[in-house]
């Protein structure tokens, strides 16, 4: 299977194919990454890989603190990820395409990227100004009864939306029709649900679309029941994740 080496962007959240990812870039290692991506012609994809942090810090400490106020902050591309960065990340991530990279006057960047395809992390290189990784694509089969499962998930998701809207006393209308292609449905619902990071990571690395949809159907029923009894959960825009401070 063909592999690729891409810049690596670790986050405390999960990026799914099709999800829009806003980034506010201020750390030097990621500024260097964006400057490198800007060298790619505008008519070509500016790709980097997003992986979820298993053990580490999304933003490296920049000053001494607890428990040792005299400790010198870590520097470099692997700061916050230990001596073996590969062990700090989940192994299945998502390739992103940076459609917009805007440099501000102070040298920071505003970036808008979109998840494209899943990829498996094979190795991490910390020898340059930012992390890079060798990755291989993770292909996905539809699995059995993916179409029927997608229909069931969409029905359950609409009920989830209604409960969530009621809990917030607001409408969750997005102005867009929900898709019906099973793979797209599975990623959209995984991204839009209010779930913890380990659960979202589990959905990302599901072996096939049908398995992800089955898992989502159970989660939707459980979460809808919780909202019914505890109407205080936040709402979210369906295709956009939170803006990350690196």
UniProtKB/TrEMBL annotation:
Q: Name the source's superkingdom.
A: Bacteria
Domain named Lon N-terminal: which ranges?
A: 3-224
What InterPro entries does the entry give?
Answer: Lon_prtase_N, Lon_prtase_N_sf, PUA-like_sf
Output the SUPFAM superfamilies linked to this UniProt entry: PUA domain-like
The record's Pfam families line, in alphabetical order, gives:
LON_substr_bdg
Please report the name of this protein according to its UniProt entry.
Answer: LON peptidase substrate-binding domain-containing protein
Upper classification of the organism: Bacteria, Bacillati, Actinomycetota, Actinomycetes, Kitasatosporales
